[in-house]
Design brief:
With 200 residues, the chain is of the alpha+beta class. Helix content is 20%, strand content 33%. The chain has a five-stranded antiparallel beta sheet, with no helix packed on it. A four-stranded mixed beta sheet has the order 9-10-12-11, covered by helices on one side.
C-alpha cells in the first residue's frame, strides 16, 4: 500500500516520505530558516500585493513581504487577474495599468531568484511538481509529456494522460519519472498535487 508520511514536528523543517509497503521510494526535506525569509527560493509560492506598476516596462513590482519587491512582467500574468477581458492581439497594444491595479493581490511563484540588486522574477502561472507529474493550476492550455521522453514511452504516456481526471481549468505535464508508471500511480500523484493546491 502506498502512503505519504509527513513529519512537521520541527518548526524549521518539514519532512515528507513516500513509501510503498515498507519500501521508501522518495523523501523530501524542506528547511525554513532565516535565509528563506530574506531571499526567496526558486519555485516558492507567495501571496503578494502589486505595489507599483511600470508602464514603460509593462511590468509590476510585487510586495511579497520579503526584503525586495519581485518583478512581474505582463507576459507572466494570468488572465484571471486582468480587470477586463482582452484578446491576444489587444494584449500586445494595451497599457498594463488598464489590466491590473496597484494594491491588487496576486499569487506568485519565484521564477528566478534575486540576483545582485534586482528582486526575484515572478510568474502567476504556478506549477507544482510531484513525483511523476507537474500540475499547472491556472494554465489549462498547457500540458503534455516531457520533451525528454520519446518513442513508445511517449505514445503510452499520451494514452495515460488522456485518461487522467484533470480539472478543466488546469494543465498537467508528465515528468520523465512517469515513464513505466501505471494509471493508478499517476492518478495518485495527481490527487496529492490537487490536495497541495487546495491547501495553498
Amino acid at each position: 500500500m502506498k502512503r505519504m508520511l509527513i513529519n512537521a514536528t520541527q518548526q524549521e523543517e518539514l519532512r515528507v516520505a513516500q513509501v510503498n509497503g515498507q519500501v521508501l521510494y522518495d523523501v523530501d526535506i524542506e528547511r525554513y530558516g532565516r535565509r528563506e525569509l530574506q531571499s526567496p527560493q526558486k519555485s516558492s509560492i507567495y501571496k503578494g500585493r502589486i505595489d507599483k506598476i511600470q508602464h514603460s516596462l509593462q511590468a509590476a513590482f510585487v510586495d511579497m513581504g520579503t526584503d525586495r519587491h519581485g518583478f512581474l512582467p505582463l507576459k507572466e500574468i494570468a488572465r484571471e487577474y486582468f480587470s477586463v477581458a482582452v484578446s491576444d492581439e489587444e494584449l500586445a497594444r494595451i497599457n498594463i495599468r488598464d489590466l491590473i491595479k496597484e494594491g491588487q493581490e496576486v499569487m506568485v511563484q519565484i521564477d528566478k531568484e534575486e540576483r545582485g540588486n534586482k528582486g526575484a522574477a515572478l510568474t502567476t502561472f504556478i506549477s507544482l511538481a510531484g513525483c511523476y507529474l507537474v500540475l499547472m493550476p491556472n494554465n489549462p492550455g498547457a500540458g503534455g509529456i516531457s520533451r525528454r521522453i520519446d518513442g513508445d514511452d511517449r505514445s503510452e504516456l499520451k494514452g495515460l494522460l488522456s485518461n487522467l481526471n484533470i480539472p478543466p481549468d488546469m494543465g498537467v505535464i508528465i515528468r520523465t519519472a512517469g515513464v513505466g508508471k501505471n494509471q493508478e500511480e499517476l492518478e495518485w500523484d495527481l490527487s496529492v498535487l490537487l490536495s497541495y493546491w487546495d491547501a495553498i
